[in-house]
Here is the input.
Amino acid sequence: MEQKQNWLERPIHPLLPALTNEIAIFAIVILLAIATRFYDLGTRVMSHDESLHTYFSWLLYRGQGYEHSPMMHGPFQFHSIALSYFLFGASDFTSRIPAALFSIGTVWMVWYWRRYLGKWGALIAGFLLVISPYMLYYGRYVRNESYVGFSGLLMLYAILRHLEIGGKKYLFMLAAALALHFTAKETSFIYTAQALIFLAIYFLAQVTRRSWKNAENAYRAFIIALSLTVLLVSAAAGYGLYTRDAQTISGTETAIPSNPTEEISPLAPPEAGSLSLTVILAVAALISLIATATLLIWGYGWERIRNERSFDLLMVTGTIVLPQLSAFLIKIFEKTLNVTIPTSAPEVQAVGSDMRSILVIGGFLLLTFILAAAIGLLWNREKWWKTALIFWVPFTILYTTVFTNSSGFFTGAIGSLGYWIVQQDVQRGSQPWYYYLLVQIPIYEFLPALGFLFAVMIGLGRKPAPKPELDEEQDKAVSLSSEAQAEEVITLLEDETNTEERNFPNTFSLLVWWSIISVVAFSYAGERMPWLTYHMAWPMILITGWAIGHVIDATDWQKLKEQRILLTVSALAVFITSTAGIALSLNGITPPFQGQELAQLQATSAFLLPLIVTILSAGGLIYLLREWTFKEMGRVFILIFFSLLAVLTTRASFRASYITYDEATEFLVYAHGATGIKDIINQAEEISQRTTGGMGVAIAYDASAPDTGVSWPFVWYLRDFTNQRSFDQPTRSLRDSVVIVVDEKNFDKIEAAIGPGYYRVDYIRMWWPMQDYFSLVNDRDPNSPFPEDYACNGVMSFLKLRKSKDYSMFCKGFTDPDVRAGIVQIWLNRDYTLYAQALGRTDLTVSTWQPADKMRLYIRQDVASQIWNYGVAPTTSELIEDPTEGKFIQLSADLTFDSAQANPVVMNAPRSIAFAKDGTVYVADSRNHRVLHLDMEGKTLHEWGTFADGVSTPIGNGTFNEPWGIAVGPDGSVYVTDTWNHRVQKFTASGKFIKAWGIFGQGETPDSFYGPRGLAVDAEGRVYVTDTGNKRIVVFDANGNFITQFGSAGFDPGQFDEPVGVTIDKNGAVYVVDTWNQRIQTFIPVEVEGSLTFTPDRQWDVYGWFGQSLDNKPFIAVNDQLHVFVTDPEGYRVMEFDRNGEVVRTWGEYGDAFSNFGLASGIAVDSEGRIWVTDGAFNRMMRFTLPE
Here is the structure.
């Protein structure tokens, strides 16, 4: 032991006596930390969350202020990043400098832990912090984790130091650590709770093991009261968990990132109600706690309590956090008091106009501040006000951004905890409870997890060194004296040369507690996200460092050197790796000795070679270890084992941080920004520089609801473009833009808006890790027998005992060799090939990955043709022309029927319209499942119809499931297509049911419909039905008797692909909207010997109808001049053609103005030639009078 210590303390060179081997090794560790954190720091694409932090920090740097939002955590990060921009400029690299510096600082903090981890333990812990996948990745990531890691190590160090020597210094350090954490992230509440529980247990252990002089009765009463308090707290927590109604979202929904532009808090005004049993138990626990404290003070004595160092730490931590727990108190009583926690600046301002809320919320906050001050002053006036200042001064400055945002203090003090209390109920992330235990820790932090188990094993078997007890006078002197005096007292009493052994009980218990409770707390927390693994990793790394350091210290290296340790270690390493090779071979897709085919022979060879090596290395080990003791062999084996784990950890960390950082194959980040983002920005920047000489190119990006489109991270990357704009719905105004970036949900709409003059490139904007771990456990019918091929067989058969659960996906990882081999490849190489093959999956390659969010880049052709290296020569082929270009007119409706008029007409997705001879109008109010009959003043004359789908409600006469088409016969009868009940219904003019015909089918019979939509009636009373799903037009007489049909699936004349609208002109010609063939076809009726047929006549292309969504279904009308009018629903316009199919004009863009549409749907011409259009998005009917 002495030789080992001497080696670390020995100078590296006689000329450098102060530079010991220990300092040199730690310097190398720090240099590695610097290199790994800063290398290639700016290359990775900003993820969704990172771009939020960088953009709002950039606004602060530009002098546009900062407004705290709990959704984006505390203000410290924003101010530190803004400072980085001020010093070094704004870029991806400089955005990550603060995180990198605090990550390096976290490694540096381990130097001060030498007295608790041991010298070797601190060096190893520092190295493990450098190579840890989570510590490295999030040390290069614009999130708060690196600040929290630093403050966590500082907080625990301050706790241990104060427990060791007392005084004031480390109380101030604890307050500073809490100030950093509470201004960085709301995990501060979890850390504080963990610390308070540990310190409370520690304090109780101290006061119960010491003598209660002449107060035995008080001691017994105290124990009873304490037991009752613990029982009541457990009952309140248990009942609260049992009755909690968490609104857990699905694995698909959890892939939707946060939207900073939406309302910050999902809180709704609570319903008034009575106190719950949880609140009653909590109040009873509080009363019991007060009684317990009273008995403690009476029996043990206030001065003795104040002299307990753990009590100092409890007071500092408790009085700091107490005012911020006012949100928790408000949450408990919100139903009773009918108030809502304000979690954003607008909500704070809204509360300002509600005197009752001000009194209630302000009263809780003021009450907790007064209570904290009273407790602190009663404990120790001098210590309390200094620690309070250390915390609250930076807290106030940062949350108010140097007093420029007064509401920030309240969103920090109340809103931070309030928002995350709400998120606990919503469970954003919705990851399963085993997310960390079975996914994140085994994939990335397996070394510290195994190290933690090893540390617990050796720690429980270690006897703590005897620690000299201070008498009460000495303890009081240490507590009340200066730091220097306290150190002097401790030095006199204790030997400073063996601090690790002396402090072992406190160090071991604190790190074990912190490691276990972190996993439990974050597994329970509503938001289970990858980055929270960071908070579980670092305490396990510290205790792993201590454990491995303990093994090194306990090993007699001089003796092992004489026993040829290097050769033995080499043989042992070969033995371990070859044994691992055997295990991999046995668990591969093709086990050895399966046959004579090439793949089978290769598998056998891959097994035999490591088997031979294992046998030879085992023989060598037996020979080399013949003089070793079992303890020596065990220690060396442990060191080699963890060394190999360190190699695997370094490999995983290197790949995640420097190779696959932008790929969804990694699990340690949730919403990966794909490389396509920077590809687009680089192209846009070069186009801008080469066409405008700067950053002035016209660029538009999709910011459409509900998820803000591609805004994040593009808002950050477009910050320097001076001619940028965002859009919600694609409109033709985008044609002014040279570069357009479009979100996936607008793919169907964009090309109709911008025309053919753009080149298109498809990219992935963001993607998420594989979600298969969501379905490891599913519900099943407990009365159903398990199938013979059920995956849970053999050693996994015990899972069949729980018959209501299906564990087959979990068991396949153990019992199915193909799946098992795939999982091993995912763990080792992030290679999903074998796993996808085993499960028949096709969505786990880079090009097909799901879940993913796609986007498109459009570059205007006339600009691209000037830039040859974008694949377009200066002389290009003739551009496709948009026939509607130059035909647009501004035309406003002169009459509108909607819910805002004097006679409200409340509609929901109105579709087709038809006029009666008397000028009144019928409209198919599709999603209200009814028909409306209106006069020209918008008054409702008749309405009929109720919902029925044949599943939840039986279908009856006059019931509908989304009526789309409507037409009026010569006798005034009204015909309606009951689209999703797959039938046609006939009514009188006033809505009395007459007849219905049609069933669901694939066109097997004339009345076998599949989603019929359009409807028309000719002068003879014949009824024309567009059987949309079956690609045909079916003709019936007025009573529903079949006459004929025409059309089939295809592109040839007379064939259709998604026919929707149908109309008949004054000459009897039939016009059909052939939607997905993007054309209009006309047909001439020919009657020969009593048989009616329809001959294709003319057709013309329509530049529109680009999308294939359920709503993009156009209708058609024709006037007496044989001009044809069609709607372009997701082009937000109406197009008019002459009788030859030439475009006459178009009108409409996206919007709710009288000249615009949200979804142009049904269309009809009245007797005076005016055009009526239904707007299915803004639920209105609009009348347009055409210009002469």
Remarks:
- The chain has a mean pLDDT of 88.
- The CA atoms of residues 683 and 870 lie 9 Å apart.
- The radius of gyration is 37 Å.
